[in-house]
Amino acid sequence: MSTSFADTTAGQPLRRIAVLGLGNVLLGDDGFGPMAVEMFRSLYECDSNVEILDLGTPGLDLAPYLYDADLVVIADAVHPREEETPGTLCVYCDDDLGLSEAGSSQARSSPAQLRLTSHDPGVLESLAQLRLAGHAPSEVIVVGVVPESCGLGKGISLSVLNTCLVAVDTIARLLLEHSIDCRRRRDPIQRTLWWLSGSA
Amino acid sequence: MARISIDPITRIEGHLRIDVEVDGGKVQKAWASCTMWRGLETILRGRDAREGWVFAQRFCGVCTTVHAIASVRAVEDALQLEIPANAQYIRNLILIAHALHDHIVHFYQLSALDWVDITTIPKADPARAASIAEGYSTWPGNSRRELEAVQNKVKGLIGSGQLGIFAHGYWGHPAMRLSPELNLILFAHYLQALEFQRKSCQVVGILGGKTPHIQNLAVGGVMNAINLNSLATFNMDRLGMLQSLLQDLIPFVQQAFFVDTCLLAASYPEWFRYGRGVANYLAVPDLPTDAKATQFDLPGGLIMNGNLASVQPITNWRDESFRAAVAEDVTHAWYRGEGAQTPWKGETDPNYTDFHEDGKYTWVKAPRYNGSPIQVGPLANVLVGYASGHPLTRKWTDTAFKTISSVHGFKMTPDDLQSTMGRYLARGIRSAMLSDLALQHWQLLTDNILKGDDTTYNPPQFPSHECEGVGMHEAPRGALSHWVIIDKGAFSNYQAVVPTTWNASPRDEKGVPGPYETSLIANPVVDPQKPLEVLRTVHSFDPCMACACHTLDASGREIARVKVL
Q1: Residues 151..190 of B with a Cβ closer than 8 Å to A: which?
Q2: Which residues of chain A lie closer than 8 angstroms to B157, CB-CB?
Q3: Residue B39: its pLDDT value, please?
């Protein structure tokens, strides 16, 4: 039984990294985030200081998972900013999220523009609270996809499914760029995409 | 007369719209509308009953474990399957840790800023604030140094001219009346609360394998392997980690959170006069202390018409009167169907008509108990416990009353709890109770394991005939019940009657409104442009529309739009 979320906090000197999937698996392409992290877990191997978690749609309950982290990579469905087509991969870093000093004043004065991901009320509010409390993550990157359809129980659309594989490799590349050990598994481990199975 | 429509009203995921008519500075009429369709029953029908909990914990992004446990309890009830004592204690500890997390988030992150005006914090005297706080509490986070640091952060935020996530607060509203010092104390705890949210999650993580979606459940018990001599299983190390996390959590709950609810109540005593609403209360028994679930640490019961002396106990999960009493009415909800239906026969057949205040106006059904609307939540939990003479409820309620009267001399009675402020205070009382119970259930688990019992699971046997069951849980927002019909191991019907459905209920076929709607009548509104007082009463219920209505709107795109009010 994995207890990574609990164990990595036992005072280890290692950097704390979180790869988090956000989204509702029951709502079609909104399940991109959970699917991407599950595929990442299946295809790549990381050390125990990297938490890989499907968080669903936690709203403000996101804060504990970001608390004092060194790097957070969030996989999530995002709203198109321009005219991106469904399935487009969008990578946002601190500047885009209005988190860096340079980006903060602009972003804060126009909160409407903050809706980068479907779940950003939780993401941005949690980050702001943690920053004020002095426990914000040092860096946040969103690996997003523009959804095609978020219908109840509809499963993932083909365009988003294809992007999912690219997103998984993107997450691995981002970790490597941050000098975090991340190895492609020779034999992928079983992935549990239980929500895509049909009813009995 | 002014008509105010607030949409959306929650600070978390979900779609709740409140319409009120205001005349003479008071609410005359109110409507609660959920603007999303709920379709979770469709997803569960036909699925393997052993896997229902995995789907059920996705009903809501916040109450994941709550639905998972109600789901396995429903199937176990249908099979009349007893689970091992260890499984009860492990589930109980998960539920306690989740509830503490949820109550902390509600009080600080989701509702404190309806009462705490952060823009006055720069004017506070930190030394005076520290001495006030130390008069009521031993919490180390109340030191002058700590409060000064928080004050400097707030000064920096305000000085930047950009309040960020706090930009939408009703700052300077005449109904905000805390002193700068109290505002500073409560906001310091708002920031400190984040650390304890994390610790609560860690408790759930150790027991459940992962959070927020636990992985250790099974119909028949839990999948935690217990072996005190093995490093890979649930062992003394894990028990020790749990104990130390709980010991870290308890002082924050009892010395910061609980005391803060008392200080807030003592400072706004007029809010014990508003928001009473539906005075029928339901709590279901929870935290069983034996394998057969015959004894519970949280008592269940029913109180009608605000009369505490009339409390009727609900002593176990198989209570026949409960099963016969619950029905859902769709007269004013966007569904087809007539009359009230028991959840076992419930249908979810959408019939959207737009908002018609005299017709259909919400996606929430109207649950009724023997035909009456019911209020659920920490207040119902505390009132039922108090009225039944439950010692732990009495201990913390009486402590709260004593603390409140020591501030400005306001003498409280249990009847005062039936109000907007009573709901806030009850959440503080319930959290203090749960923090005591956390260590008790840790002890029950440890003692049972040390006795040599390592069983955690009894395998289920599914009969070839149809069977029905109810799974109950006294969740953070109140009484939750999952109603299932199982045929050859698969669900043929599944209905969840969730706390927010009880509280956000619309009018029924007799035109009787639900708890949110009733509680708003006569609520003051000083400035219709800034209806802060309406938010206070609605937020006192801790609205969470995600599972009451589930997540789908007409366009299927606006997945979690929230306006922070």
Answers
A1: 153, 157, 160, 162-165, 167
A2: 132
A3: 65
Domain extents for chain A? 14-183
Confidence category of residue B549, pLDDT binned at 50, 70, 90: very low
* B516 and B32 Cβ atoms separated by less than 8 Å: yes
Compute φ and ψ for B479, nearest 5 degrees: -65, 125
CATH superfamily assigned to domain A14-183: HybD-like (3.40.50.1450)
Residue of B nearest to A152 (CA): B552
Distance, in Å, from the CA atom of B220 to the CA atom of B281, rounded to the nearest integer, reads 31
pLDDT of residue A14: 67
Helix axes B180-208, B126-134, angle to 10 degrees: 60
- A109 with B162: Cβ contact below 8 A: yes
CA distance to B160, B305, B394, per residue, from B385 (Å): 48, 16, 8
Whether residue A190 lies within 8 A of chain B, CB to CB, comes out as no
Question: Is the preceding peptide bond at B212 cis, omega within 30 degrees of 0?
Answer: yes
CA–CA distance, B516 with B506 (Å, rounded to integer):
9
User: How far, in Å, CA of B340 to CA of A17, rounded?
Assistant: 51
**Distance separating alpha carbons of residues B493 and B466, to the nearest angstrom:** 11
A101-115, B87-101, B247-261, B335-349, range with the lowest pLDDT: A101-115
Taking the C-alpha atoms of residue A31 and residue B281, their distance in angstroms, rounded to an integer, is 38
Pick the CATH number of B2-92+193-549 from 3.40.50.11270, 1.10.645.10, 1.10.760.10, 3.90.79.10: 1.10.645.10
Q: For residue A121, what pLDDT is reported?
A: 60
Interval A39-81: pLDDT, tens: 999 999 999 999 999 998 888 889 999 999 999 999 998 877 6
Sign of CA dihedral B153, B158, B162, B167: positive
Q: Is there a contact between B202 and A119 if contact means CB atoms under 8 Å apart?
A: no
Out of B48, B198, B213, whose CB is closest to A54? B213
CA–CA dist A106, B482 (Å, integer): 47
Do the strands A17-22 and A71-77 form a parallel or antiparallel pair, or are they unpaired? parallel
pLDDT of residue B234: 87
- Closest chain A C-alpha to B563 CA, distance in angstroms: 8
Residues A199, B46: C-beta atoms closer than 8 Å = yes
B201–A contact, CB cutoff 8 A? yes
Choose the closest CB to A1 out of B12, B43, B224: B224
- Flag whether residue B446 sits within 8 Å of chain A, measured between CB atoms: no
Total Cβ atoms within 10 A of residue B545: 30
Please state, in angstroms and as integers, the Cα–Cα distance from residue B400 to each residue in B15, B383, B432, B434, following that order: 34, 14, 10, 15
Start-to-end Cα distance in chain B: 23
pLDDT score at B260? 98
A114 touches chain B (CB under 8 A): no
In chain A, what are the helix, strand and coil shares in percent, each to the nearest 5? 40, 20, 40
Say if residue B8 is preceded by a cis peptide, omega within 30 of 0.
Answer: yes
pTM of the model: 0.91
At residue B96's C-alpha, the angle toward residues B92 and B101, to 5°, is 150
B32 in Cβ contact with B373 (< 8 Å): no
